[in-house]
Design goal:
Elements lengths: L2 H10 L4 E3 L7 E3 L2 H10 L7 H13 L9 E5 L3 E8 L4 E7 L10 E12 L2 E10 L6 E9 L2 E10 L13 E6 L15 H14 L3 E4 L3 E2 L15 E5 L21 H9 L5 H21 L4 H30 L22 H7 L1 H28 L4 E6 L8 H5 L8 E5 L9 E5 L4 H6 L3 H11 L4 E4 L7 E6 L5 E5 L2 H15 L2 E4 L9 H7 L4 E4 L22 E4 L8 H6 L1 H8 L6 H25 L22 H10 L5 E5 H4 L27 H4 L3 H11 L3
Parallel strand pairs: 3-9, 10-11, 10-23, 11-14, 14-17, 17-20, 21-22, 22-23
Antiparallel strand pairs: 1-2, 4-7, 5-8, 6-7, 8-9, 12-13, 15-16, 15-18, 18-19
Length: about 700
């Protein structure tokens, strides 16, 4: 490996070596061609040593090109910034203003010796400054005057720790819900915001204080079967499929009469029929929109205009993207990259004319966002009215799809030709390719982190807690070449990203939880803990010997964690018990040989025995359903097992326990099987077997709630 190339890659945050998280850990040394590929994707020439030297010089001189950096992100106990100016000039004035642009009376002092640099014959000085006066966490404007010229930047002052809710001073419990999967006699074949409100009421009755939700962000309008909630086209806005059409003020009961047969079909099916449900809802919402347009003087129209103004350019871009996609997808295949040049960005030549011709359709897409926001906000209001201590616990996907409004609308923010994924680990021995776009660290900072801040705020809205999927991406993200399997980690400014999360958590009064399954850097979890980012504890991974040993006792669970039995990517309890997930993986080729399948079955027998021993030792079997036998060969499903398991995890030291209704209701199918597409497994489509109207009288629901209440 070229030493110069290796050094430049390291300077740019490109890993030249890394370890995976496989059962037998491997070290990967990245070859020169791969390093050159990623360096070039970050915008630097590196074909030979001369180019590398020139690029390195440009990179290291970059800070001296501007008087102020785009933003300074600091912890409240160390607020610093630097100023660059020609050596023959001096700083005349420094002023700090708060978010209301009111001058702050602060003490500013120069710290350390100034640094000087000769660039093309001009000497520049870089001087560091520190604000010793305490500033409240928030965003401040930095104004600097040099030789009668004014320069501005932003200072983000972050608290030392993320927000702590007093509601979590005692142990809480709640439900982990996949909203789309909720079945009710009222909804139109997919869970909606009215169902969410009913679940909030259920929580209030049972003493539950939190509702965990999968990402609710908007998906592809034209291909509703692309249903993964983690493949959004914009993390700033909601999925209109969750709108309860019958609660839209402009809806009329007669609207649905022509489609009653279709409605009956989608309501009674075992799996969600996205290609029927979503177009049906859109058709009904179009009727509502026409009536809405006629009410130009109504208070609702005023609320709509206010919403559009608040959401501004981001909503404009989303609605325009959706209208364009609807127009172009029947003509070309390949997403927005295959569109005519005049449509390939919001600034493209054909956009003004398109907007003029399609204004009404663009407004319709804005209307759907307006109504989704209204209904979701009503659910949050109910959380407050019912007194839930945390309420909605939202989920933020690690990235956004490449064929997305976010990418189309802001090309410059993303690294071209690469996608996010994961190297090999204990669960995915060949690694993963997620197909998600990746922010450029330098472009993100040039934009003052505003795109990231907006995403955080949008997902903290109407939430008491936020789960950050693959939270390691705050530090580093594994990137893959779109055209090959070569990949490596790219490091972000971890301190900046972490401070912004802490600041937005503080400003939005939102608890932060980090999902950290996978390849976790050494010391990373300790850093999160120091900043009060809570972790996740899952029964199946709370075991000795990396999942091969016994289950940890409840008192050994991490106190600062959200605990659960499983996740949407894991088999429900009854499915796990019988090993149906092993059979399914074998049938789909995810387990490659008969021998591997048999070994998996033998391990599951051992695991069943270990689980039974653990719940025996904890004494959590239902009093009226004591353990009747061994069962380790899966010959039967022990009566009361799910109650015992729920008591076991609910007894844990973890501050929050989240129960899955799939475990309550003895579901034996997996909601999402990672590594498969719809042609192999019906991911993100399985409905709950019991409707909301019957849930509170269902014996399994009653018994499991009672079991949890004994511990929390």
């Amino acid at each position: 490996m070229s030493d110069l190339l290796k050094q430049f890659a390291t300077d740019l945050g490109i890993a030249t070596t890394f370890n995976d998280a496989g059962m037998v850990q491997r070290t990967y040394n990245i070859d020169d061609d791969t390093l050159r590929f990623f360096i070039s994707k970050l915008g630097y020439a590196c074909g030979n040593d001369a180019e590398i030297s020139a690029s390195m010089e440009a990179f290291h001189n970059q800070r001296y090109q501007d008087v102020l950096a785009p933003i300074y992100v600091c912890k409240e106990d160390n607020v610093t910034f630097d100023i660059v100016h020609p050596q023959d000039k001096q700083v005349d004035k420094i002023a700090i203003k708060n978010s209301a642009l009111k001058l702050q009376d602060v003490c500013i002092e120069a710290v350390s010796e100034p640094q000087t640099k000769d660039i093309a014959g001009t000497f520049y000085v870089l001087q560091n400054y520190k604000i010793s006066t305490r500033l409240e966490p928030g965003y401040y404007e930095l104004d600097v005057k040099i030789s009668n010229k004014n320069y501005k930047s932003k200072i983000a002052v972050a608290p030392s720790r993320c927000y702590h809710s007093s509601g979590m001073d005692n142990k809480l419990w709640g439900y982990a819900i996949q909203l789309y999967a909720v079945k009710s006699q009222r909804n139109w074949g997919v869970g909606d915001f009215t169902d969410l409100s009913e679940i909030i009421k259920m929580c209030a009755k049972t003493g539950a204080n939190i509702i965990g939700l999968n990402p609710l962000n908007v998906l592809c309008h034209d291909f509703p079967e692309n249903a993964s909630p983690y493949q959004s086209i914009s993390r700033l806005f909601l999925n209109p499929i969750y709108i309860d059409v019958e609660k839209v003020p402009e809806y009329r009961a007669a609207d649905i009469q022509m489609a009653e047969g279709l409605l009956a079909d989608v309501k009674t099916s075992e799996y969600i029929q996205y290609s029927k449900v979503y177009p049906l809802k859109v058709k009904m919402l179009e009727k509502c929109f026409k009536r809405f347009q006629e009410s130009v003087q109504s208070s609702r129209m005023e609320a709509y205009k206010k919403f559009c103004k608040e959401q501004g350019e981001d909503l404009d871009k989303l609605a325009l993207f959706q209208a364009l996609y609807e127009s172009e997808s029947p003509k070309v295949w390949g997403g927005w990259r295959a569109w005519p040049e005049e449509y390939k960005s919001p600034q493209a030549s054909g956009i003004p004319e398109y907007i003029e011709k399609h204004q009404e359709r663009i407004e319709f897409f804005k209307f759907m966002q307006f109504e989704a926001n209204r209904q979701f906000s009503e659910a949050q209001k109910l959380v407050k009215d019912m007194g839930l201590k945390i309420g909605l616990y939202r989920d933020l996907a690690v990235g956004v799809g490449k064929d997305s409004a976010e990418y189309w609308g802001n090309h410059e923010l993303f690294i071209p030709g690469v996608g996010a994924g994961a190297p090999p680990d204990a669960f995915f021995t060949s690694g993963q390719r997620w197909g998600l776009a990746a922010f450029s660290p330098t472009k993100l900072k040039e934009h003052r982190y505003e795109p990231f801040i907006k995403i955080l705020r949008a997902n903290m809205k109407n939430a008491g807690a936020l789960r950050m999927d693959h939270v390691m991406s705050l530090m580093r993200l594994y990137l893959l070449d779109d055209e090959s399997n070569r990949g490596t980690y790219l490091y972000y400014n971890f301190a900046d990203m972490l401070n912004i999360v802490a600041l937005e958590s503080y400003l939005n009064k939102c608890v932060i939880v980090g999902e950290s399954i996978g390849n976790v850097p050494e010391g990373f979890l300790d850093t999160l803990k120091d900043r009060n980012i809570l972790s996740l504890s899952v029964l199946w991974s709370e075991r000795a010997a990396v999942g091969w040993g016994g289950f940890y006792a409840p008192h050994d669970y991490t106190p600062t964690a959200f605990a659960s039995v499983g996740t949407h990517d894991m088999p429900p309890l009854k499915m796990w018990w019988y090993g149906y997930d092993i059979a399914e993986a074998y049938n789909l080729g995810l387990i490659s040989s008969e021998q591997d399948k048999n070994e998996a079955y033998h391990k599951r027998e051992t695991d069943r025995g270990l689980l039974l021993s653990s719940i025996d030792a904890a004494g959590v079997w239902p009093e009226d359903r004591p353990r009747q036998g061994n069962y380790i060969y899966g010959e039967n499903y022990p009566e009361g097992l799910e109650e015992a398991v729920h008591r076991y995890v609910a007894r844990s030291s973890s501050v929050v326990f989240l129960a899955q209704l799939e475990d309550f209701l003895h579901v034996t199918k997996q909601q999402n099987l990672p590594g498969t597409d719809i042609d192999k497994h019906l991911n993100w489509r399985l409905k709950l077997p019991v409707s909301l109207e019957n849930m509170e009288t269902d014996p399994a629901y009653i018994r499991n709630v009672a079991a949890i209440r004994k511990e929390r």
